[in-house]
Structures are given as C-alpha cells and as structure tokens.
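Re: duplicated header lines in exported structure tokens

Our pipeline writes sequence and tokens for each protein into one text file. With two proteins the header for the second block appears twice in some exports. Here is an export where it did not happen, for reference. First protein block:
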Amino acid sequence: MKTKIITSQKWHLEGKWRICPLFIDWQNEGVCKSLFDTFSTSSKPNNPTILTVNGRNSYVSENERKKIIIFLSKETKKDLNFLQKHIDLCTEAVQNLLEVAYGIQKTNITKISHQELAKKFTSFSKNFIELMPFLMTFDYLGDVLETLVRDELKKIFPKYSFSPEDFDKHLAILTRCLEETSPTKESNDLYKIGEKMQKASRVNFQKALNDSGIAELLEKHQQVYSWMKVYSFLGTPFLKSDYVNRLQEMYEEDFADILKQKRNNFRKNQKEWQNIQKIYQKEAVLIRKAELTQQFIFMRAHRFEMMNLAYFLVNNLFREISNRIGLSDYTDTIWLLSNEILEALRKNSSQDLLGIIEERKKGFTSFGSNKKNFIVTGNLHAEIVQFFKKNSADDFDTNIKKVTGQTAFRGSADGTVKIVFTANDLKKVKKGDILVTKMTNADLVAGLEKASAFVTDEGGILCHAAIVSREMQKPCVIGTKNATEVFRDGDKVMVNADKGEVILCAKEKPPEKKMKKNIAIVSFEDLDIFDTDIAGGKGASLGEMTNSGIPVPPGIVVTTLVFDDFLSKNNLVKTLQSLINNKEDFDTTSHKIRTLIENQIFIGKYQKELLEKLQLFPSDFYAVRSSATAEDGSENSFAGQLDTFLNITPDNIPDMVKQCWGSLFSPRALFYQKNNNIDQSNVSVAVVVQKMIDSQISGITFTANPINKDTSEMVIEAGYGLGEAIVSGQITPDDYILKKENLSILQKNVQTQKEKIVRYANKSETRKVVKNLQDKQKLTNEQIIELAKICLHVEKVYQKPMDIEWAFDGERFFITQARPITTL
C-alpha cells in the first residue's frame, strides 16, 4: 500500500472513537464487503472504503458516502416499508448475535479442543460481521429520516394555525424515542436502590449501605447491568463499587423526588405524543414516518448496547484463546485480526504475534475496501497521520464567544461548563452544571442526570444525546463541532436550545494566587515554580508545566504541611534531630528514623482528603514520588536520592507517602545533604501522587548536549517499556541528537534492546523484547520531532537547559519530570 492511495481521495470524518484492530477487521468485512447484501433492491452503489487512523478517527470515502446517502434517501422516499424491513433485519441480526454469545457463555470453554474453540470464535465473528452493516446504515438513515419527517411537517404545517416557534417543538415530539433505553432503565433501577437506602437513613450513607438487603440489591443490579461499561472489548464491566460511588455522589439528592420527576417526564412524553397524534390525525403519512422514526431511534441505541452485551458475554472465549496461544494478557487478543487468531490456534502458539501486537500498539492505520482489508504500522502509518494533520480543519479562533448547533430538546439554562470526555471526568460535574462533551454514551448518563443542560460536538437529532435529552426533558444543543475546544471548565455559559446556541458569558479566569501555606493537598493546576516550599522541587515543577500546557499526567501533591504536621502530632521533631546529631553511621541513623516514621499512623483527616482528591483522576495505579524542598534546583539536585514507588493501588498510597517521607533520611540522602552543606532542618519533603502512564516507550531528553556541552543541540534517549530501565542503567537506550534550531536529526544511535521493564498487575517485571523489535529504532523520525517540540516547550518555560523524563503510551507523549541540567 502506498500513501497515494490515501492522498488521492477525499475523506469524510465519520467519528472519533476508540476501536481495536479486531473490531475494525469485522467492521471492514461487514461494511466494505457486505453492506449492500442487507438490502433487497436491484440498484446499489459501491460499498464504502473505510480508513481508520490509530483506532480513533474513522474516515469514509467522500464520494462513496454521498452515493450511499442518495441511495438510502431514494429508496426510503419510494417505499417506507424499506425502512421497516431494515429495522426488522437489524433486530434479527442483534438476536442472532446474542444467541451465539449466550451459548458461548454457557459453554465450559476450557474443556473443548482447539478446533472446537476456533469454531466458537468463527461463529461469533460471523454473527458480529452480520451486524456490522447496520452500524453504518443506521447512522446514515438517521440523516435521511430526520429530513423525511422535517420535510413532511414543513409541507403540512401551514395548514394549521400554529406559530413558527411551534415547528421545532412538534418536530422534537415526532422524533422522540418513547421506549426506555438501557441507560435509562439502569439509572431508574439504581435510584430505586438509593430510595430504599434513604428510607433506612437519610443522612448516614454508610449506615444505609449496610442496611439489610441493600448489598443483595446492588449485586443483582451488577449482574443485570455490569456489561454497559464494556465498549469494543476495551472497557471493563461496572463493579459494585462503581454503583456505590454513584449513589454516594448523589446522596444529597432525594431519590424519591428524582424518580417521581422521571416518571412525570415519561408520562409527559407519552401525553405529548398522544396530543400530537390528535393534532395531525388526518396526516397518516406524517404519523407513519414518526412511528418509524421512533422505532429507528430505539434500535439505533439498542444495537450498540446489545453489541456491548455480546462482548461481555464472550469474555471467557477471549481469555481461553489467549491462554491457548500463549498471550499473558487476554486483552491483547483485540490487537489481532480474525485470521491471525485462527492461525495461532491452529499452531497452538503466539510465535510472531507479540511483535505484531507491540507494533500496532505504537500506532496503526487500517484500510478496508471491497477487495482487501489490511493494517499498516511504522513509517507508512506515520506518513498517513501527517497527511491528516496537514489537511485538518481543526484550527479555530480562540476568541469565539458563541457556538451553534441543532436543537435536540428546547429550553434554556445557564451554568458552569464542565468538559467531559470519559466517565472518569464525571467526578467534577455538580448539580446544575452545563455538561459539554464530544458525544454522549451510556457511561455518561450519571453526569447527564446532574447537569441542567448538555452540549455536544457531534450528532444529529436522532443521536444518543438527543434521545436522552428528550427522556430527561433537559435543554440540549448538538452538533456544534467545536464546543469542547471553545469552552473550558469553569466558563459561565447560557444554553439557548430554542435557537440552538451556546453563548459564553464569562471566561473562567485563572485562579488568583492564594497564600498556600495552609493547604494540605493541592492539584498540579494550583501550583507553580514558586511553590517549592510547600510542593518541593518536583511538585512545583509539575505544577508549572501543567499550567504551561505541557502534557503532564494528572496528579496532586501532599504538601510539606502534612509532613510537618505528621512530625509534630507524633512528637517526632526533637527525636529526629537528636538521632541526626548522633555520631552513628548513616545506615544506623537512617534505619532508626525510617522505622520511627513508618510505624506512626497517617493522620486521619489527611488520609480522607488524599483519597477524595484521587477521585479527581481515578486510576488503577499511581506513581508516588518524593519531592524535597531542596530538590530539582539548578544548584543542587536530589535526583535519585529520594524514593519513588510505581504501580501503587489507591488503598496503599498513604503507606507509600510515609515511605517517601522516610526517604528524606535514607543513608544516601543524609550523605548527600552533609556533603552539599544542606542544613537538614531547612529541608522538608512533599509527595507527588500521579496517575501512572503504562509506557510502551520511555526515555530522557537533555535540551543541551551533556557530552560536548553544546546548548544548540538536544539529545533524546529512548527504550522500550518503563523508564526505570534507563534510569537504573539496565538497558542501553537509543540516542538521537538533534539541532534545536530546525529540529533536524544530526545523528541516530540505534541500540539492540533484548529486555524491558513492564507493568504487570501492580508490579514491574522484566520481560524479553520480541525478537523482530530488538534491533529496531524505538521512535520514528516523526515521533522524535514531535517529542523534541514538547521538550523545547519545557525549556522555554524554564529558560534554561533541562533534563526531562518522558513516557509514550502508544498514542501520546507525557512529561513525567523536568529539572535543570546541573552538569553543564
């Protein structure tokens, strides 16, 4: 494949979502080769060509897309039964897929032969592929149906004595889903549990949670709905704790009132539909089109929901496949194509697959047509990414005060913007906020319940956001294209859904610098380089970078106040000073001090605040790093003197914080302070708690050449896996030397890397690098330049040459630490 195949066509961006190679493989088979097999008509355009870049952006050939929409519009106008038949066919495909999935779930997969396992996988694949065409046709038919109902209403509307403003209101009622979708049913059932809890205790959540029968109700709820979080094999089921957290977040609300309002909304929707039927009772064509639209809207949401359920049901299938072919992580199967999985089962081996998986995780482009489907990686993929970057129309005026879109549900609301991309962002949404997102899905329903209105970048009046807004009776503007880019968290906006517009009332001002001396735990966003006294060198540096737009993994700092208070409350200050002043060797002094600190109990109020602040950026694993107040300066660097702990689960973080405090008194730290004439009484320690990045490639950048002291050059070191392999000297990384002026690559020294450190569960372990990757260049030339630009941004912020640690998770670079180079 050559890039001219891509560059010679005009592409339409269908959507931005997270999908894996296996899903794309099935999608391409079902859409590019079999789309028009679902229609019984004689005249059919070509099946579309689909391009998926990085499993995020999906494009369809512009010319083919237009022809498909023209075809669907023509057939629908010719015969409305065309739509009914298509809805029925989709319903049948969903039922067939679920039947196979339930059958697999009930099978003892571990007892069947390789051949039988391959048959199960093939059967699931076949039925999945047969559902794929409906993913595309229902999206396109949404535009067709919207036009059909709108045009029909326009034609007959002048016959009635309504004001022009009533047109949109009637259109919204005619295109409203009257059947409850799964997210609505799930939230209703969860709030019924909340209602029972509040009857037991209105003010004490924990007491209500412990009430007899509540645990059983939550377990049943999980059994029924846990699949809703799964998406394209990449999600994980909802846990009981997820539901407990949702209930706790909303416990100040009255669940009985919420349920009453939801019932009232449902009855109101039904009543409005009955009234509109009476108004237009003589307009049989309009009512028929509206009824079809309502069926269509439900099935549009239902087909995705049931697909997610199917993923969930066959979890056992993919676990067993991964066991048989030797993959240590069953989720790695989604990075393979169907034929690769079947071939590996036939060989009973993962030989050659690990290299393929590693390469695709770095980035891939999928190309599907009616003749062939394939995936490309490496330099060819990088060229395609660059092509779309150059042809992107994403730039916009930062002074925009208003965005416009379509009305999904009428009404108005004003409030504070909260930008939401994933369910993890819902923690920041408060009652009455304006939720702004790219597109809603089942994961976001809890936030939509709290919001007073919502706004999306994408979607038409039959999309998920439109459906939910009508169910909830909340103002909603959809299809603004750039609301998530124009607005920021904290902006004050007015949503006028009647006009389909969102107006910026007041831009969120950067918070004024406060006296931070009494702040215990603080987010990176609230720190800058002058806060070393409370956040230490590392914490202050991460705050400065975050506020300068540098990609830093989110985190918080347990400030020196907590450490000082811990010493004071436990009467340790004099004891520590006495131990340090003794003439004992560093090892003995260190052991006594660290044991003393680690044996004390973490102060309760700080532990509670710490665990609450972690919910601002939920993660399975965190990095816990010491940050001394004399660290990361240009005169002295504590680099490597204090402790860092990786892959720490939330419940273990308080203990790790104490160990970080203790590392201020490690033998090497005590020696370092003495040799550099650092008065220990003037040194305190903060602790950085940061979301862990699962690094595929990590490294260090020096924005001046540390060998020849040339400040016009920069050096990037890169290796597979976590960065600790480079820092510890376990591997010899690649190094790339660049000219800073024009970012030209002057020299590349590519090293063989046979081992890497990776995260496995909650620990790090050494693994072999796949053989065909051992001698390869770790970063592509394009990635080297992209990283260099970020690192130069860091240097510009600090106005001095920097020593920068970075990580690449397969999609983007993150800066994990930066300090001035002290050896120039």
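Second protein block, exported in the same file:
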Amino acid sequence: MGLIPNDIINQVIDRSDIVEVIGEYTALKKAGHNFKGLCPFHHEKTPSFVVNPDKQIFHCFGCGVGGNVIGFLMRQEHLEFPQAVRLRAEKLGIVIPEDEAPLSPSRQLRDEIFKINGLAVEFFHEVLLSSREADTKNAREYLKNRGVNLETVKKFQLGMAPNEWDALLKHLKAKGISEELILKAGLIIAREGKSGYYDRFRNRVVFPIFDIQNRSVAFGARTMDISDGAKYINSPETPVYIKGQHLFGLNLCRQKIGDVDQIIVVEGYMDMIMPFIHGVDNIAASLGTALTTDQIRLIRRYTPNVVMLFDTDAAGQSAIVRSLDLLIDEGMNVRVARLKEDEDPDSFIRQEGIDAFRARIESAQSLLDFKFSWLSAQIDPLTVEGKTKIARELLATIARFKSEVAKYELTKALAQKLNIPESVLFKQSTQVQTQQGSVKKPEVEIKISASTSASDELLLSLFLKDPGWVKAAGKSIGPEDFSDGVAKEVAQAIWSLADESPDWSTNDLLLRLRQESAQSLVTRLSSTEEKKLGDAALVFQDCITKIRKEKQRQARSQLMEAIRQAEAVKDTEKLDQLREAFNELLKEG
C-alpha cells in the first residue's frame, strides 16, 4: 500500500461506484440485484462477469478473476496498488498526502507525457479556433467544406499545427517543459547534423488520439500543402502510445457501442468523423490498416459484433482479409459492408447521404460471402485449380471457429458456392483442422483452486454473510483447520479482522488478501446468489463437524505413518508414545 493512509484507501473505495467505473471499460446490463457483462479479462461469448453494487465487488465465473474497484483498475490498467488508488483518488478529487511512496520512474514519465500531450491538444485546438493566419483559415475552410462544424471540432478537439518550424516547441518550453521530455512525447524531431529540434507537425490539421480514459496518447495530422510530403503523418510510438492498441473515436462511442451491441470499424479519421456527425455513434477507426489482436480485445470489452467498412481499394480490402482470422480467433461475429468503387465512408455520405450509408451497413455481407467474393475476384472459381485454392483458403478460415455447428454450416455453404459435394469438403476440412490444431495455443484463463472443500466454502460464505459466525467458529476450529492454502489465507484474514472489529466488510477482507486466488474465492462466494440454506445454525454446526472430522482424519493418518516408520527402525520408546497419542485421538473421535 505504500505510505497511503488506510483511511484514504477506504475513502477512495467507499466513494467509488464500481458499476460506473467498470462500465467505462465493458458494457454492463442489470441482472436482478447485480450487473452482468462480458469479461474484459478473457474471451467469452456468454456474459459471466458479475458486478455486485451492494458489496462493491466484481467476479467472473468464467475465469475466476475478482476483487474490488482498486483490484479492477490494477488489472485493467496494469498498475500497482498505490498507482491504482492514486488514479481513482484523482478522479474523485481526494487528496493523497505527499509523503506517500514516490511513483516509479516509468510511471512518472508516462504521467509527464500525458500532461505534455494535453498541453499540445490545447495549443493546436486554440490555433485552429483563433488564429488569423492564412494557413489556419485554409484549414478551417477545408474542414467546413468536408462538413465538419464547430461543434464537431470541439468534440474531437481538432487542431491546427502552425506553418512554423518550432511553434509548439516554443509554446511547451514556455510552460517549463524540457526538450528531452517533448522529444520522448514524439512531438519534435532532432535536426540532422545540427543541434536543436523542430516540430513534427507543421501546417497540418491535427486529430488528437485519445485512450478510453480520455487521455491524449498520440496525434494524426493531415497536410494542407501537397508539397509537404505524406498526406497523413502520425505520432511515433512512445511510453503512452503503442500503435495497434487504440481506436480513434472509441472514447466518444464506447457507451453507444455497448448499448446497440455493435461496432462499425473504419480506416481513417474522417471516415469515422463523418458518420458520427450524422448520428452514427457506434463507430471507431483502426488508425492504420488491419486490426490487431489488442484492438480486437479492446472492442470485445463493449461488443462481440463487428461490421468492417474499409476502403474499396485493394489495400482496404486486403486489410479486412488480414483482420478476419484474428477476429474469428477472438470469438467475434463479423460482417463486411462495402461501398461503391473508389468510395470511402466520408465521400459516400457526402454524395449519397446518411440513409444510404445505413442501408449499406444493414446489408453487410457475411464473413464467408465476403471472403469468397474477394478470392473469386483473383482466382477463377470455375477451374479445378481455382476451386482448390479457394477451398483451401476458406477451409483454413472456417477451421478457426470454435463452434462445431458454425464449422458445419459454413462448410456446407462453401460446398454450394463451389458446386462440390459436401463430403469432399468435410474430408478436406478435417485435415485442415488437424493441421491448425497442432499449432493452436490454448487460451490461458485464471482459475481458482478446485481443492477448496464444500464445508470450507459454506463456512466462509456464512462468515461473509454474517461476521458474527467467526466468533462462534473460533471456539471449535482455527484458520489452520481449513483444507487448502487458499481457504486458509482467507480464514486467517477473517480471523485477524474479527479480532480488530466485529463490523468488518468484504472490502476490508479484500484489502488484506494478496493472492489473486484468495480474492477470487471471496468474490465468487460473495457474488453467488444466496441459496436457501435452511437453518443457518444447523449448516454452521454441520460444517464445523465435518472440518473437525477431516482434521482428525488427517491427524490419524499422520500418526499411522509415524508409527510405521517407528516400527521399521524398532524405536520402541517412540512407538509407545505414538500409540498412546493415537488412542487418545480415537477417544476424541
């Protein structure tokens, strides 16, 4: 916990609404007293991730992960405990004393770059809104002609990089930012063969890229002068930005994506902004070409349903094809929408209108239909050689589906498209699946110990429901009497809390536990809907009796083993002591 006082930690947890916090990362829906959604920590098609607003905890019944709001942020943001507390405290306006343990150098650098990027966003945005320079006026006219109004400029915090070598550099240095940090943020470039630096972005419309916490991580910039080189340039990778881990516009659309349970993925900044202006607010841009696994998993936090809508040129369609297998691997439901030749979403909407755009989304092709059409445009599907190549390509894709029903139906559909007997394709599909199965890696999931006994779990459940049972249990058993290490750790923490106060809570307990498996056991028992136990006192007594009998069984077993060893070495004195102890144990039983 570092040096953060316990009362501050408790205040952060007490003032946090865990449903609201987790809802920023994955879509949650009301389910009785709890909320449910798809787990953000492992792949699943059926929601098994439960958030309990009363106890302010979460638990996934699929992978076993569980904890409180701080535990969620630690796992989601890859933070240490003090960092997660600080992050949440800052959001809540809770001041943490300055004598806490210092941030790690890497975390401190990330925070500084976030700050620098924020200053750069403000600078570029103010230039676009206020500058009277001719280049900026041209930029405003360009955006206006593209249909981007002032409201959209402000919502996306669009900006303009002045047509100067070091306008941003001077601005940031005036704010007390060193050139070294500005360079690490990727906003300036070292002069070749000379000392000094110059701005990376000059005379360009700037599109800030935000993460899902609305922090600026990078920038994309479109030139206003074709002689300036590339039409678009982007930030390099930095300590806060890794290409392929973010989606442009997702910070603005994630809630709607979860609500409608679908995302439209496009390529470019304007391809995302133009539909958004017209009310299509379940959309995001890939910031490149093909989707990466990280981007797909980011999408999966909000929906498993994806409509790919990339440019109709060869590069755009190839990018979709490269994304398909990854999408299937991650259990996504994929369709592909297509526009007119040489059209992108931006130009299509400006020429055809938003209704025509929505119609194209609704009529999106299935994955099989799209890939078959794409392959058929390159390979003649009427020749034996062509059919062989297409079948091999599509069967490899079909084999990636986890559902045997999906594989069966898609293989049948492919047989019809190629006019080949189904039996032939099923035989070949078996070979393909065998080949792919040999190299597939199983998905890693975190599971809690399966050795915790039913009596242990029932007794721990009673403690969590009513801490008063701990005192009663202490007359007959102790933490050491629980059957495995996980249950023992939980029991030890409970006994310790009960000694300090009779009014401890589930969150108090979670703060005492260090093992993820122990936290998972607590959140699982706390999140499981209460069953009718009948008379709690009888259940309690039954658990105590079974735990004591198990303790005696183990003790007898240990003594019998010790007796065998003493007999083997003919240690009569020790043998007499052991037999006496064994007889006493039998009397107790």
